[in-house]
Design goal:
transcription cis-regulatory region binding (chains A, B); homodimer; Arc Repressor Mutant, subunit A; Tetracycline Repressor, domain 2; DNA-binding
DNA sequence: TTTTTTGAACTGACTGGTCAGTGCAAAAAC
DNA sequence: GTTTTTGCACTGACCAGTCAGTTCAAAAAA
């Protein structure tokens, strides 16, 4: 099927157009006409490729979180392969998260804006997709406890959620309110927090 | 003047109706008719009390963040008064944040969903209001560095943003995906992270 | 006391405009 | 010759904001 390549390219253009518009304005405030125009495509094409506006959005969410989890997992595996500790892997994942957000700020923005909304059509899609991302962090935390690197007392699901949140919000805040800072600055602030060098030492 | 009391009560009802609806559906997807109906008030009353839908929303934001900063500041001052350290004050603020979010989950949800959006009418209102909240945390961090409780190397604005983010996201995640956990569980997971007892002691 | 007036607060039907989604014939791409 | 895209007119639902009219408690007049 070569035809799927052309379709694929069109869908990609629509994703890119939709993600920035929805991040800026929100889902409801973004019109299908705007998305089509930004993508340089006729409105009919949107409906040829996606059943509806919300289906387009749901597939966009799946697409984006797929990229994120892949990049987190890769960072963690690369660290393990080169003989790093589990805490090193966490640190590498923090950096991977920051790099992702730096590359796809609009997607992150929209993900955060929609994640905790209830009563929306795509709410279940989001729950699944969130769990995939958080699970990557939980796995590393679990490994770290098994290896004795981290205390057995830590609460894995809550700590994983807090770590993800810390990275997400710190990165969005960096982009929105402190864009003059470098990725390395942000990374070391977060690293310091993770490694107990803020108020740590006990 | 009783009449101003009556107005006040109406406005309060409108805030309460709007906050849950907008948290669930987003600003654009929420209609003024819905807000009026939920508040048990005619549509005209909304426009008698607020110039427009977005003005209602902006005043709601100011109102809510006012409550939050007051509660953070109170927690910090109470700790200082009873002779606690600055790190104790940070810990107390984490708890105050959790209590606030527990009490006003809808407001928190909506705040997070809107905070990093650009190009919106209320974007500047939000920037101001965010700064007020973050500043409370920054002040305590600064004090802690001066007192020698925290290393001079920490980056105050970035660390403050990360801490706020950690609390915000952990709390929303708790409500949405792990509601069976207690506030104390969440508090101790975050506390442990702050005090370097996750991977800490270096 | 009783009646009348005042005005802030509130009401809800109505309007003008917007937008998701449809239908389809013709062109372009493959 | 099949798939994909285009362009564009159309519809029906929906919605922000308006406005002429109503309510009622308290002040002023009788």
């Amino acid at each position: 099927m070569e035809s799927s390549t052309r379709r694929q390219a069109t869908r990609q253009k629509l994703y890119e157009a939709a993600v920035t518009l929805i991040a800026e304005q929100g889902f409801s405030a973004t019109t299908v006409d705007e998305i089509a125009e930004r993508a340089g495509v006729a409105k009919g094409t949107v409906y040829y490729n996606f059943a509806s506006k919300s289906v387009l959005f749901e597939e966009l969410l799946r697409h984006g979180v797929g990229l994120l989890t892949a990049s987190l997992r890769e960072a963690s595996e690369k660290t393990a392969a080169s003989g790093g500790s589990k805490v090193d892997a966490l640190d590498a994942m923090i950096r991977a998260g920051l790099v992702f957000i730096d590359r796809y700020p609009a997607f992150t923005q929209l993900y955060v804006a929609e994640l905790w909304r209830t009563n929306r059509a795509w709410q279940s899609t989001l729950a699944v997709v969130r769990q995939e991302a958080v699970a990557v962090v939980e796995d590393v935390l679990r490994g770290a406890v098994e290896d004795g690197e981290l205390s057995e007392e830590i609460d894995i699901p809550l700590t994983a959620a807090a770590l993800v949140g810390m990275v997400l919000v710190a990165a969005l805040d960096w982009q929105a309110f402190q864009p003059e800072r470098s990725l390395d600055d942000v990374h070391s602030a977060l690293s310091r927090l993770l490694q107990g060098r803020v108020s740590g030492g006990r």
